[in-house]
């Protein structure tokens, strides 16, 4: 089965649910068994994941791919080709990349590999990745370099911003809506604080791959009725900070302009892989060899399962085929890029010094 046919078979599996994603793992397990490989299926909180290893040596390359998908519309699980594109939910994000990894893995199994190659297939990336990739990294399934097959247009996403999610309670004084000057509007207090946060020093910083961090006013909740000055408001912020920045320093700056308690919902570290990392250079060389085009090396504004490996100082990148509209209508992957992606993975692994 080639990587395009395998992508089609994976698209047909409704892996938007726990049951369906686990079914997709079983499908991949059987495929690997049919090709005389020895996959291991692990389970954490009912979430299945698969690990399979080939090769030998001191170095280990991890190929990480997720089988879960976001919700879909009717007809999106019926893959079809048109104008050199393969359409279907998950075609780009990321069943094509995962299928190419599996096909490359099968084709490499009888080669005299210069390193170990470990396949990590997971089922919860779209919902955070904490039950699979995070679990695998915590349990010692680590290596020297990680490729997550997210769609990147055959470019290399070497870094990703960190995540700082906070919420802040603002208190004011209620009054009749016809006399707002007699009250203290908590919603206005919240928004004025947001404007001050936008002008803090951390928000103006830039780095090699980023012009700025991201600050999203994700949600604001306050007020009861038209004719009352609101005495309470809750503001929710999603801050994506630069790899060189520090979440604690950002919180310190925010506290300096907000006169109320700040509640931290979540902090996730950034991915800090360097552009000149030896594995990034080797991958770049393979891409240029197979595609005969310059490589786009960039930083992601969001993050993927790379973050769980980066936590252990393992260089990790997002690298996958070309496509568009993932999570949206008419999701597709460019067929030619899928075939080239498989060849790049093979060339990269075979030529690691």
TrEMBL record:
GO terms for molecular function: hydrolase activity; metal ion binding. InterPro entries: Bact_exopeptidase_dim_dom, Peptidase_M20, Peptidase_M20_dimer, Peptidase_M20A. Pfam families: M20_dimer, Peptidase_M20. Residues 160-262 form the Peptidase M20 dimerisation domain. Gene3D superfamilies: 3.30.70.360, Zn peptidases. It comes from the Bacteria. Keywords: Hydrolase, Metal-binding. This is M20/M25/M40 family metallo-hydrolase. It comes from Clostridium senegalense.
């Amino acid at each position: 089965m080639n990587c395009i046919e395998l992508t089609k078979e994976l698209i047909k599996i409704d892996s938007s649910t726990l049951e369906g994603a686990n079914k997709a793992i079983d499908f991949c397990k059987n495929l690997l068994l049919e090709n005389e490989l020895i996959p291991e299926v692990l389970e954490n909180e009912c979430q299945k994941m698969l690990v399979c290893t080939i090769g030998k040596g001191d170095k280990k390359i991890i190929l990480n791919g997720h089988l879960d998908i976001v919700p879909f519309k009717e007809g999106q699980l019926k893959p079809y080709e048109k104008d050199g594109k393969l359409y279907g939910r998950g075609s780009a994000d990321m069943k094509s990349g995962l299928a190419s990894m599996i096909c490359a893995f099968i084709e490499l199994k009888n080669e005299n590999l210069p390193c170990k190659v470990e396949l990590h297939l997971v089922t919860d990336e779209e919902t955070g990745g904490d039950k699979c990739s995070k679990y695998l990294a915590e349990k010692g399934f680590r290596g020297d370099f990680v490729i997550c097959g997210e769609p990147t247009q055959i470019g290399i996403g070497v870094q990703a911003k960190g995540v700082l999610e906070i919420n802040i309670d603002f208190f004011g004084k209620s009054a009749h809506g016809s006399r707002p000057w007699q009250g203290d509007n908590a919603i206005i207090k919240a928004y004025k604080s947001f404007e001050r946060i936008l002008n803090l020093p951390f928000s103006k910083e830039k780095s090699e791959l980023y012009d700025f961090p991201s600050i999203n006013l994700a949600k604001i909740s306050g007020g009861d009725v038209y004719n009352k000055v609101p005495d309470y408001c809750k503001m929710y912020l999603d801050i994506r900070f630069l790899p060189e920045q520090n979440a604690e320093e950002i919180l310190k700056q925010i506290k300096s302009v907000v006169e109320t308690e700040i509640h931290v919902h979540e902090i996730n570290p950034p991915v800090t892989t360097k552009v000149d990392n030896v594995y990034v250079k080797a991958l770049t060389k393979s891409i240029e060899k197979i595609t005969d085009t310059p490589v786009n090396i960039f930083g992601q504004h969001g993050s993927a399962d790379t973050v769980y490996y980066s936590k252990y100082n393992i260089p990790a990148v997002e690298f996958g085929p070309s496509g568009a509209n993932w999570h949206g209508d008419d999701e597709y992957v460019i067929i030619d890029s899928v075939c080239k992606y498989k060849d790049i993975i093979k060339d990269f692994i075979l030529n690691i010094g």
